[in-house]
Design a protein that fits this description.
heterodimer; A: 220 residues; mainly alpha; Four Helix Bundle (Hemerythrin (Met), subunit A); 7 helices; 77% helix; elongated; B: 100 residues; 2 domains; 0% strand
Chain lengths: 220, 100
Amino acid sequence: MHSGHIELQHHFDDMEQQKEASTFGMWVFLVTEILFFGGLFLAYTIYRARFRGVFAEASGHLNVTLGGLNTLVLIASSLTMALAIWSAQVNKRKLIVVFLLITMALGSTFLVVKYFEYAEKFHHHLVPGPDFEQDYPGPNREQAQVFFALYFCMTGLHALHMIVGLSLLTYLLVPSWKGRYTSEWHNPLECCGLYWHFVDIVWIFLFPLLYLIGSRHHVS
Amino acid sequence: MAEHAPSRRNYFLVFAALVVGTVLTYYAATLDLGPLNDVVALAIAFTKATLVVLFFMHVYHSSRLTKLTVVAGVLWLVIMISITLSDYLTRGWLNTYGAR
């Protein structure tokens, strides 16, 4: 019944097969992303098992309020992303654009908060390097430095993914406004949504593992 | 695979559950549960991730191929972590070459 649709590529039999192929392809990519971030989580686990007390102390230097706020911001952005796709499924063209814009605003909020967090770390010489080795306010500097190296690697790569996600959403805006995404076909919206939610999931794990392992010690 | 009837209500319910999970994670971390702190934090994070995957990412309504792909990804992550840790966490159990 869909076979004559304008968005159907010639190498697919029908719209359903085309959608299945794009979802499958996106998930295969996300599996490589799971293993990519998984390697970092593995490195974190190994060093944390070895330097348990120092990691708890170093984690106390992170700002739990800002980290928690950013968790809520990302969860809200996942909701609006899901609602953008829902808008396509019910053929509400303008609503897609509205929800995409809200999602982008929330994603940008996350990055701005992250900027202030990073600035604070630079200000207090908590960035791995010569200043850290001189000024870290506690024993076991080398081990604490490992925690902050992991913190910047993991949150930095996550922030990079947020920037890629924001670029993808920007790219979706014009076709959405022009009414290209409908209940019949909105594969690009669906795939970019999967990417956005994946990045949200990474943060769901980063927040407790980086910010909350030392909060009950209240070092800072 | 027919396009399922999209429901906005489920999305708001999932969102509410994710917010509750975040608040729970925060308060669980203020309690001293010993090694259980990590277990609780990871259990909440896995629950939140599962909700996002199933509903926001539509895997609940997806084909078996998509579900298999997701499970395969998680399975390989578990293999990577468990086999590597079986090395790192057991070093020193036997007094052999290389043990500290």
